[in-house]
Amino acid sequence: MSTATAAVFARAGAPLEIREYPVLPPAPGTALLSLERSGICGTDLHIIEGRLAIPPGFIPGHEFIGRITALGAGDGKDALGAQLRPGDLAIACVAQPCGCCPTCASGETASCLHFGVTNIRSPDEAPHLFGGFATALHQRTANLVRLPDGLDLDAVAAFPCAGPTAIRAIAYAGGIRAGELVVVQGTGPVGLFAIAWAKRAGAQVVAIGSGSQPRRIALAREVGAGAVWDYRAVDAGERARRVRALAGERGGADVVIEASGSPSAIPEGLELLRTRGRYIVPGQYSSSGPVAIRPELITFKALRITGSGQYTIADIATYLDFVAAHADLARSFAGCITHRYRVADAVRAIAEASAGVAVKGVFAP
Ligand SMILES: [Zn+2]
Ligand SMILES: [Zn+2]
């Protein structure tokens, strides 16, 4: 029997533990996949550092892209009804909305009140391999999305979580229209993908990033930002002046997307918007403390503020369609993957991700 290497979140605030588990055959309705790419997401860092109230005892990782090595009994159909076969590449989605709570009943399953996940499960329990930081994964076929043939694997692996997260938030806010002025706060994965998406929707996009992350600034330009302002070099007053100059008669941005995760971005977002502007907030992914805002701006500018923290499995398909439709972006997207690691080197991978060294780090074979 072969074994797989997994990085286990055994204790909050402690390094991941590298363990070996036997690779068992897939149960009915599931597939066994071997690792191709598995991204390290900011949420994983929040979990491992103990900043989210999720108790330890599982294999983190929710951005697993693998090759199907075996299928259990069952119809072998993916989440969207495509037939899966051994050898196919697929993205594993960990989300399991309940399907029957009031928000699920309203069709907004991305905001299920009783969200379950497939990866938070003890690896002591067979078949052990439930999380993404591993060289093999067991997943329900209903939680897989088959990758269309011919897609660049690294391009897909850049934003398998950040992309659908941005797509869902923008969809909740009614989309982005051609000619709109969009300000993206933050140039991490959610920000970079939002820039690419807004630009392809025909918007004029500017981004606010950090000059200490020159690679991210360059990528933001590459994927579609007309300008990227280093928030230290271009102060808030100057940023507001520049946005007003670009907006002309509108008086401010049509849309601001908060993708920095910094509470201090919120008061500025409210300032930069025009009357009836839309503030889209998918980026505040951990509790980083309170912030003072001017609430009267919400009233007097009649702002629309939309949060979103999850996505649906259909949003993953939308993400793949977007990557497929924009071959010109593939190189830039693939270029977002700045660091690759073996699962056995997960402790170093997490330390480097926490230090902000990588734009995007992935585990690969
Ligand atoms: Zn994620
Ligand atoms: Zn539900």
Describe the structure.
- This protein is an alpha/beta fold.
- 28% of the residues lie in helices and 24% in strands.
- It has twelve helices and 17 strands.
- Strand 10 (181-185), helix 5 (189-200) and strand 11 form a beta-alpha-beta unit.
- The protein is globular, with a radius of gyration of 20 Å.
- The model has no long low-confidence stretch (mean pLDDT 96).
- The structure holds zinc ion (ZN) (2 copies).
- Residues 97-99, 101, 103-104, 112-114 line the site of one zinc ion (ZN).
Categorize the overall geometry.
globular
> Level of helix content?
25-40%
Q: What is the average of the pLDDT values? A: 96
Main sheet summary: 7 strands, mixed
Strand runs, count: 17
From the helix content, strand content and strand pairing, which structural class follows?
Answer: alpha/beta
Termini, distance in Å?
A: 19 Å
Strand content: 15-25%
Model regions low in confidence, pLDDT < 50 over at least 5 residues? none
What small-molecule ligands were found? zinc ion
Brief account:
This protein has 365 residues and is an alpha/beta fold. It is built from twelve helices and 17 strands.
Features:
single chain, 365 residues, alpha/beta, seven-stranded mixed beta sheet, globular, binds zinc ion
Topology:
Elements lengths: L2 E6 L8 E6 L7 E10 L2 H7 L15 E8 L17 E4 L2 E2 L5 H4 L10 E2 L18 E5 L3 E3 L6 H6 L3 H11 L8 E5 L3 H12 L3 E6 L4 H10 L3 E4 L5 H12 L5 E6 L6 H8 E9 L14 H5 L3 E4 L5 H13 L4 H6 L1 E5 L4 H9 L5 E4 L2
Parallel strand pairs: 10-11, 10-13, 11-12, 13-14, 14-15, 16-17
Antiparallel strand pairs: 1-2, 3-4, 3-8, 3-17, 4-5, 5-9, 6-7
Helix pairs in contact: 4-5, 4-10, 5-6
The structure holds zinc ion (ZN) (2 copies).
